[in-house]
Specification:
heterodimer, A: alpha/beta, Spore Coat Polysaccharide Biosynthesis Protein SpsA, Chain A, Ubiquitin-like (UB roll), 7-stranded mixed sheet, 5-stranded mixed sheet, 9 helices, B: alpha+beta, Aldehyde Oxidoreductase, domain 3, 4-stranded mixed sheet, 26% helix, elongated
């Protein structure tokens, strides 16, 4: 990030109509917490301040009322459109960039937000993930720069209302998410049930501390030689997947070996607290 | 018999003395040197890095295997780590034995196995200013690539050797060693 780039605030979009879900998406529960709470807390780890974007009339609604709110201003787009929420936030704080997050992304991860913040390009209007499914920009998990305000206004004056089309037409930086599941959104009751089951199954997984050492290419890509990590990864294979989502390792698991406690190990070995793990890229001694 | 690392120049003469034995009729050594080219690129220097805790175990396992497999007296290997210039010695392997045949065979076996099994990595720095980890950077673009016969043996690790028992890698080609056992 260049020193002149604007500070980033978080904006959780919770003003949607949830029409296909037939109930308020923001209030959906995962692991006993509302989706809005989860998204809010996630964003808090990456930016200084976080707001919730709501429509007029939602401000007293209990899921939202305990959080700092930005209420849609009239005349900034159709009530159900996310652009209204983004423009209202830009109007309230014109000099900051917005980490905009939809509140229907139950799999959104710290790793994904960390990547987005790290790869932010303040020279364009927005930095967004390119969907792993259709290659299209994902405007609702993206960083919107202050100067996008004027362009959004222009876009809406021309009859535009879709933020995804906006990002395809205006200069934006699109990045490939390392964590491919992070952007899976849920729209129907069936998808909600599936996501809930999947996330609940991780609740029981015990978290533990592991020591990871990095060498050669892995060290350069992780940006460190070692770390102690709190993780619920049960096996070296799980751990590698977790760390690839975080660091974007270019080598696949098939190309690596793994060592646990300074001995070669199976990828499916059950890890225990305190284990020291090393991923071994293709060797080249001699 | 031992495998070890050094951060300074390898003293081959000193390493050789450890192999002396009244029953040895000869000694074969291999020195790996830093050369100025690789795969069409002009190389200016190399950096070696090792996961030493495991590399020492694996290196010594190879030496033990060599002694079990060939009727030799002693075997040793020294590998350099750190930054190396052209013509520097990166690795030294020495074997002493009663007769020359098995010393040659064992020496070849040891250097081949070290290159394939011991967690040591080599970063090449090129004339162009570019650099790259050998066997890591190009393969990354094509992770499913499989290697046929005749491919650079250095790539053997990328072959999905993890299908084998952990830590036990088959040599790329079966060693044909008439009369060695």
């Amino acid at each position: 990030m260049s020193p002149v780039s604007a500070p980033v605030y978080g904006l959780i979009l919770a003003g949607g109509l949830s029409s296909r879900m037939h109930r308020d998406k923001a209030a959906l529960l995962y692991q006993g917490r509302t989706q809005l709470d989860r998204a809010f807390d996630l964003a808090t780890g990456h930016v200084d301040r976080v707001f919730v974007s709501v429509r007029a009339g939602q401000a007293d609604e209990p899921t939202r009322s305990d959080k700092p709110l930005i209420v849609d201003l009239p005349g900034l787009g159709t009530a159900e459109g996310p652009i209204a929420g983004i423009r209202s936030a830009m109007a309230a704080y014109p000099d900051v960039a917005w980490l905009v997050i939809a509140c229907d992304l139950p799999f959104l991860s710290d790793a994904a937000l960390e990547q987005l913040m790290r790869e932010r390009d303040p020279s364009v209007l927005a930095t967004a993930f390119r969907s792993a499914h259709d290659g299209l920009p994902e405007p609702l998990c993206a960083i919107w720069e202050p100067k996008a305000a004027a362009a959004l206004s222009e876009y809406q004056s021309g009859g535009g209302h879709c933020p995804r089309k906006f990002l395809r037409r205006y200069p934006a930086s699109l990045i490939v998410p390392h964590d491919r599941r992070a952007l899976d959104n849920i729209n129907t009751p069936e998808e909600y049930t599936e996501a809930q089951l999947e996330l609940e199954s991780h609740v029981g997984a015990k978290s533990m501390q592991l020591k990871i050492q990095y060498f050669a290419l892995m060290r350069e890509q992780a940006g460190r030689s070692d770390e102690t990590l709190e993780t619920s990864a049960a096996t070296p294979a799980d751990l590698f997947e977790e760390l690839t989502a975080r660091y974007g390792f270019t080598l696949s698991r098939e190309q690596l070996k793994v060592a646990v406690n300074t001995e070669f190990s199976d990828w499916s070995r059950r890890l225990i607290p305190g284990d020291a793990v090393v991923f071994i890229p293709p060797v080249a001694g001699g | 018999m031992r495998f070890r690392f050094t951060e300074s120049a390898i003293d081959a003469a000193a390493a050789r003395r450890e192999l002396l034995d009244h029953g040895a009729g000869g000694y074969v050594s291999f020195e790996g040197w830093v050369r100025d080219h690789n795969e069409g690129q002009e190389v200016t220097r190399l950096e070696y890095e090792a996961f030493q805790a495991l590399a020492l175990k694996e290196g010594n396992r190879i030496l033990t295997e060599a002694v079990q497999r060939f009727p030799i007296k002693h075997a040793a290997c020294v590998h350099r780590v750190g930054s190396l210039d052209l013509t520097d010695m990166a690795v030294w392997v020495g074997v002493s034995s009663a007769h020359r045949g098995e010393a040659f065979d064992a020496c070849r076996f040891i250097i081949d196995e070290v290159k394939h099994r011991v967690p040591i990595w080599k970063k090449e720095h090129y004339r162009s200013g570019d650099s790259g980890w050998v066997n890591c950077e190009r393969c990354a673009a094509e992770p499913r690539l499989t290697y046929g016969p005749g491919h650079d043996q250095d790539h053997v690790h990328g072959l999905g050797a993890s299908l084998d028992r952990p830590g036990v890698h088959q040599p790329l080609k079966p060693l044909v060693l008439p009369g060695s056992e």
